[in-house]
Design goal:
Blueprint: H1 38-43, E1 46-47, H2 57-64, E2 68-75, E3 85-86, E4 90-91, H3 97-107, E5 111-117, H4 124-127, H5 131-145, E6 149-153, H6 162-178, E7 183-189, H7 197-209, E8 215-219, H8 228-246, H9 250-255, E9 257-262, E10 264-265, E11 271-272, H10 274-286, E12 291-295, H11 327-333, E13 364-365, E14 370-373, E15 376-380, E16 384-385, E17 397-402
Parallel strand pairs: 1-2, 2-5, 5-6, 6-7, 7-8, 8-9, 9-12
Antiparallel strand pairs: 2-3, 3-4, 10-11, 13-16, 14-15, 15-17
Helix pairs in contact: 5-6, 6-7, 7-8, 8-10
Length: 403
């Protein structure tokens, strides 16, 4: 479900219970930084750093207080092979562009998670021979960027491929074991029943392999949804799916459940406005869910007629909004109050005074006399004649302002 959505990508893995920051231990991760509080990785919205008119993450951080970003997407090379690339075209091994984005975010006290998969393209689970080689490819990404969180976005068409899903789930389990403190999230399609048949098969594969990520997130859009009520109903159904699959009680299932929405107009013409996000956010926090994210920051700005023309866009939301309105819901989920930006009122210009009679060099003026000169009014401090107003700050004329 998304390539335009830029593949609504799977979200930043996170956990709800453990709020303490944990540092990545395994590997000498290049550029590793201290991990954020786990709640931030759970709240990281998607950002395509190389496509869909990428916004400046530093500007978003300043405007909203956001600290975490879910970068999308890592795929297998378009030409084939079991090595990680950005969107199938830019090898991770030689990347400098995404590294620069990450450095910008970290320099301001933030961090990133990386999303692998998404809708369309060839996934590493499809291209690699087995779970171990799939995990080795993803480990390159973790080590290169010093990641503390990673997301597996398992959806069409990959999740219809049993062998590929076995590789992806197996790889996720290996990465979780080899990188202590790494947060792992798994995101899949949402339906009115929680998730569809292939989503349920993916959960059964996770159970068979003994793999439990920090959360399983669903994307309740592009499936006949209509506003927040249909989304929260799907989240309730999905909670039942998690309980029946893993034998969890309701609270445990919610603590391993996540929401990944789409701001504005979805691929299929559904609309989710700010009020819908607030309703789902209230549901997620009331039920102590582990994750709340959305697709995407590239779309978190108002369209112009030229941008959109009534279609779903990868670069704007197609609903009325201020820039970064939807990012503020992620900030709230992380437990932080977004900064309030009160516009500085534009001062109402004061109309200039009307001009007094023009100054004359031949007229003698007594104290208090008023004249105009150089589009300003002037008042005589004492008797004066043939002394130009403003010629000296110590002269006989006091400037009364523009006229």
């Amino acid at each position: 479900m998304r390539r335009l959505r830029a593949c609504l990508g799977a979200a930043a893995a996170v956990g709800l219970a453990a709020a303490g920051a944990t540092a990545l231990v395994a590997g000498s991760a290049s550029g590793a930084t201290s991990a954020l509080d786990n709640r931030w990785y759970a709240a990281a919205p998607y950002l395509m750093p190389l496509d869909n008119d990428p916004p400046d993450p530093a500007a978003i951080m300043d405007a909203t207080g956001l600290k975490a970003f879910q970068l999308a997407f890592v795929l297998a090379p378009n030409g084939g092979g079991c090595t990680p690339t950005w969107d199938g075209t830019a090898p991770v091994a030689s990347d400098t562009a995404v590294r620069s984005v990450i450095d910008t975010i970290r320099a301001k006290g933030g961090d990133v998670s990386v999303s692998i998969g998404g809708y369309g393209g060839t996934k590493l689970g499809q291209a690699c021979a087995d779970p171990a080689s799939t995990a080795a490819a993803y480990q390159q990404v973790i080590t290169k960027y010093g990641l503390h969180a990673i997301d597996f976005d398992l959806e069409e068409p990959e999740y219809e491929n049993t062998a590929a899903i076995r590789n992806e789930i197996g790889a996720a389990k290996i990465l979780q074991q080899n990188n202590p403190g790494l947060y792992v999230s798994v995101t899949t399609a949402g339906t009115a029943d929680g998730t569809g048949w292939f989503g349920k098969q993916m959960l059964l594969e996770a159970k068979a392999q003994g793999f439990t990520p920090n959360n399983f997130s669903i994307m309740p859009f592009d499936g006949g949804f209509n506003g927040a009520a249909s989304q929260t109903a799907a989240l309730t159904k999905f909670n039942g799916v998690l309980r029946s699959t893993f034998g969890w009680d309701e609270a445990t299932a919610y603590a391993h459940e996540g929401f990944s929405g789409m701001n504005g107009r979805s691929d299929t013409g559904e609309y989710f406005a700010q009020a819908d996000f607030q309703t789902v956010l209230d549901y997620a926090t009331d039920h102590h869910m582990d994750r709340f994210t959305f697709w995407s920051l590239n779309r978190d700005r108002q369209c112009t007629p030229a941008d959109n023309g009534g279609r779903t866009s990868g670069t704007c939301s197609s609903v009325a909004q201020n820039a970064w309105d939807f990012a503020k819901y992620s900030v709230k989920f992380a437990g932080v109050t977004p900064p309030t930006t009160t516009p500085t009122p534009t001062p109402t210009p004061t109309a200039p005074a009307s001009c007094e009679p023009a100054w004359s060099a031949t007229t003698a003026y007594t104290a208090g006399a008023e004249v105009s000169y150089g589009k300003h009014n002037w008042k005589a401090k004492w008797w004066t004649q043939n002394e130009t107003p403003g010629a000296s700050q110590w002269g006989p004329w006091q400037d009364e302002g523009a006229c």
